[in-house]
Write the structure tokens for this entry.
Amino acid sequence: MTVSVAAAPAGGRLSSGALRNLAQAIRGNRKATVGAALLLLFILIAIFPGVIARDNPSADIYARALNPSFKHLLGTTALGQDIFAQVIYGTRQSLIIAIVAGLLATALSVLIGVTAGYAGGLVDNVLSLVTDIFLVIPTFPLIIVIAAYTKNAGDWVLIAVLVATGWSYGARQLRVQTQSLRNRDFLVAAHLRGERNGRIIVFEILPNMTSLLVANFLGAALYAVLAAAGLQFVGLGNPDIQSWGTMLYWAQNNEALQAGMPLWAIVPGVCLALLGAAFALLNYAFDEMSNPALRPVRRKRGR
Amino acid sequence: MTYVVRRLSFFVVTLWACITMNFLIPRLMPGNPALDMMARYQGRISPVAYKALEVAFGLQTHQSLPAAYVSYLGNLFTGDLGTSLTFFPDSVESVIASALPWTLGLVGLTTILAFILGTVVGMIGAWRRGGKLDSLLPPIFIITSAFPYFWIALLAILVFSINLHWFPLGFGYSNGAHETLTWGFVGDVLRHAILPALTILVTSIGGWILTMRNNMITTLSEDYVSMARAKGLSPGRIMIDYAGRNAILPNLTGFAMSLGFVVSGAVLVEYVFSYPGVGYMLLEAVDNGDYALMQSLFLLITIAVLVAVLILDFVTFAIDPRIRTQS
């Protein structure tokens, strides 16, 4: 067991080293590069919407149902609002929900998954059962039911619901990963050094699961984007806020497709799809990184 | 037999958890659903029906929570789900019975088809690693798996119904058609089902392709595959009987675990196409403040998924010899 102390991976130096590795990894993988570029673009739009779109997204002051023109890049809605401005200003809400719900869901996954994997025994059995139950329950109908009771309750209720329904998949993965780490030499060494369990989890286990944690966040964020948009689309969000899901709701309500304003419904959908694709591409790239067997084969098979 | 017992008890525990959740949610939420419904359907609710609503939503102030729970369970097991207000005066059971076949036919068949197709494509893709199929399909499906189901549905309507006039805009069958078993009616139903089915297929198949491909890649590096090659077995037999048969097991578990997601997406697809199934009914119920119907539909969808998971557990048991010898 004396050798194992030396063999211990550098725990605790999570910040700068891991970030540099991350940047390098993203540059080295084409899927990750595309995903990261898309995500960065949306983040910039979300921070500076006023720089890109001049019109006020909620002002219904223009002629109705205009076709795209230089003045209105994507035309106007049936209510006389500028569609381009709505798309640009809608970015922020969709992105915030994705990131906040993604982070909180990942935190909950870590709390439950790592605890279950690390503690083992009865704690593990109970937590795994809870995880499996949440995994098989169809979440979207559940969200619909809860949203029906808390009508237009605002972003925080929405985020809480998305977190409550979106953590289980990650928890299951993290539990398995923790179990496989638990009996490694460097953790045994940490035990022998007399480190507390909490410290071992934060400084020894979590740094060894960075890629899995990032993948989990991306998966949870993707889920949050799609679920939130779906909920807003069927009219269970707050119809007064600027978001892509809300745009789709109004477009559907005004029969935008049949009435010759297809861009009203198509463009927010494209944005949702692109943001979702950004998360999915990054997620897949991280999957490839943590599982070398999945990396694309570049050379011809030598057989 | 331990595996079967374990999965059966998981089914029972999950079922209990869902029923309890269904019982607790209306009681934990702000507001008074029964009064809400009363106000909305003024004059149409008889005092007797109101009493039933109170039991369903736990608003009898004289009844303690445990007692309410017992009477709730009693009502549930005798199949008394209350009266639907959206489709007054039909009972909730009869409304559900009319919606269920549509969803089973559309979502059930399409999901199974997507799983089988996806598994086969993933298997072949991994077998010809780096080939045309393998370098083309996975990236496409990573991206389509991120698309919102309902938006694909909107696009399908725009292109195939509005612009090309190939398919109807929505609904399960033409207005005025008679629900009889004639070729004309069956054809009409199929014509209405094609677009929603394609939407579900396109958005759900990607996941199966990717997971099957990844499982298959892991399996292909196993010693028994090399052994099969060394024995000189035909490539098709190695791919299907050796690698594929083992790679499909985790995929089946994954299928069971993600059924909930598929059903979630299908709810929105039904909504966009106004397809008269369970998902569309659920949103109608929400729209009309018909909480009795809404709660029952949620429970029904959950139970359907749980039963499907249980069936998949038995399929796994049947085709995985490791589980059989273990028990």
